[in-house]
Structures are given as C-alpha cells and as structure tokens.
C-alpha cells in the first residue's frame, strides 16, 4: 500500500491508555469506519508474542478498509505481520537501516523536529515525516516546535508531512497554511466517547485545513 499526501489527512495512532468499555480492536474498527486514512500501532509495554498477535489482527482489519498500516519503532514486528511499513523516531533505528531490513516497497515514516532532521530522513529514504509536537500534549513528552519551523520543514522536503502533538477538533484549523498534508492524532480519536463521530468530524476539518 502506498503512502500519499491524501493518506496523511487523518493519521491515527493507537494508545492502550484509552481501552475501557471497548477493546483496542473495537476502537480501531470504529476509527476505520469513521474515516481515518492511516493507522499506526504503538505498543510500549506489550511482550513480543502478544504484540505480534495483535499486529496481525490489526493489519487484517486495516487491509479490509484499504488503510495503510505501520508499526511504531519495531521493524521485526512490522516484518513478521506483513505491515505496510514502520515509523521510527530520532532515537530509534535510522531510516536507511529500516529500509535495508524492510526492502524498497514498504512505507517508512520518521519523526522530525528540525529542518536538518527532516532533510536527513528524506535522504535516507523516508516516505513521510511526522513533525511535532505542534501543540502541548500529555500523551507524549515532547517539546512544542514553532510554527515557523513547521513551515520550514514542509518547504524543505518533497515527501508528505503530518503534524503531531495535542491536535484536536478545537485547534486543528490553526494549522492551516503551514504546508502540512494532515494530522496525526491519539487522544483526540481514541480518548473520545464516540470514536466514529470524532473521526468523521476530524477528517472533515483536516480536509478544510489542507484546502481540499
């Protein structure tokens, strides 16, 4: 499955923190039905066996909805579950190394906070960038980057850029004009009482934000 600018519109990242009345898989199914355009499975504390089992199930679900599916950080799990690719941070495996392991046809996303990091990631074969945090967030400990930096990164690379960090339906339109291709959201999707409706609303706003 390809990584396009359109697939960045509403990029969902899973978070087990929000599992309650629904299972993680039920939450993900609701988000897919609500219109997410890209899905990342993020697991920090699950053992490898359960992680792989979950990844295989989620990959099958994402494929059914024709949504690209990537694994956060873990290239081995991405390979084992036939994910569409992997997303790596600055302190994880280099994009070039991930490309070596995954081959030419898989999607590789890289987190970036500076123009230098963005250009290096593109040089090493990244297919898209995750840039942020663009707003303060409780989900991840990350410094907020300036809007000017976000615009500079978008102007410096030719690959799609998705913004991440503290984005919700109240502030998403503030990102209009920055050059990003979409938004990456965790709690604004999976922390909502009605995930499906939250996704419908966010997708509409994201399209408005990028000018579609």
From TrEMBL:
An example Gene Ontology biological process: thiamine biosynthetic process
InterPro entries linked to this entry: Aldolase_TIM, ThiamineP_synth_sf, ThiamineP_synth_TenI, TMP_synthase
Cofactor(s), names only, from the UniProt record: Mg(2+)
Residues annotated for Mg(2+) binding in this entry: 73, 92
Organism encoding this protein: Lactonifactor longoviformis DSM 17459
Reactions accelerated catalytically: 4-methyl-5-(2-phosphooxyethyl)-thiazole + 4-amino-2-methyl-5-(diphosphooxymethyl)pyrimidine + H(+) = thiamine phosphate + diphosphate; 2-(2-carboxy-4-methylthiazol-5-yl)ethyl phosphate + 4-amino-2-methyl-5-(diphosphooxymethyl)pyrimidine + 2 H(+) = thiamine phosphate + CO2 + diphosphate; 2-[(2R,5Z)-2-carboxy-4-methylthiazol-5(2H)-ylidene]ethyl phosphate + 4-amino-2-methyl-5-(diphosphooxymethyl)pyrimidine + 2 H(+) = thiamine phosphate + CO2 + diphosphate
Thiamine phosphate synthase/TenI domain mapped to chain residues: 10-189
Molecular function, one GO term: magnesium ion binding
Encoding gene per record: thiE
Job of this protein: Condenses 4-methyl-5-(beta-hydroxyethyl)thiazole monophosphate (THZ-P) and 2-methyl-4-amino-5-hydroxymethyl pyrimidine pyrophosphate (HMP-PP) to form thiamine monophosphate (TMP).
Family: Belongs to the thiamine-phosphate synthase family.
Record-level GO cellular component terms: cytoplasm
Gene3D superfamilies: Aldolase class I
Enzyme class at the top of the EC tree: transferase
EC numbers: 2.5.1.3
Annotated protein name in UniProt: Thiamine-phosphate synthase
Residues given in the record as 4-amino-2-methyl-5-(diphosphooxymethyl)pyrimidine binding sites: 40-44, 72, 111, 140
Cofactor binding note from Swiss-Prot or TrEMBL: Binds 1 Mg(2+) ion per subunit.
């Amino acid at each position: 499955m390809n990584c396009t600018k359109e697939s960045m519109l509403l990029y969902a990242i899973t978070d087990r923190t929000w599992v309650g009345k629904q299972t993680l898989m039920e939450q993900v199914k609701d988000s897919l039905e609500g219109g997410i355009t890209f899905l990342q499975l993020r697991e920090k504390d699950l053992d490898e066996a359960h992680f792989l089992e979950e990844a295989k199930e989620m990959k099958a679900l994402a494929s059914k909805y024709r949504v690209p599916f990537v694994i956060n950080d873990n290239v081995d799990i991405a390979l084992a579950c036939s994910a569409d690719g992997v997303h790596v941070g600055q302190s994880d495996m280099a994009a070039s190394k991930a490309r070596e392991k995954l081959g030419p046809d898989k999607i590789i996303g890289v987190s970036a906070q500076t123009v230098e990091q963005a250009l290096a990631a593109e040089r090493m074969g990244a297919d898209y960038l995750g840039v942020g945090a663009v707003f303060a967030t409780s989900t991840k400990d990350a410094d907020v980057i300036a809007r000017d930096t976000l615009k500079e990164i978008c102007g410096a690379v030719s690959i799609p850029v998705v913004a991440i960090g503290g984005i919700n339906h109240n502030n998403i339109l503030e990102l209009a004009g920055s050059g990003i291709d979409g938004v990456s959201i965790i709690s604004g999707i999976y922390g909502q009482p009605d995930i499906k409706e939250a996704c419908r609303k966010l997708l509409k706003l994201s399209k408005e934000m990028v000018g579609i």
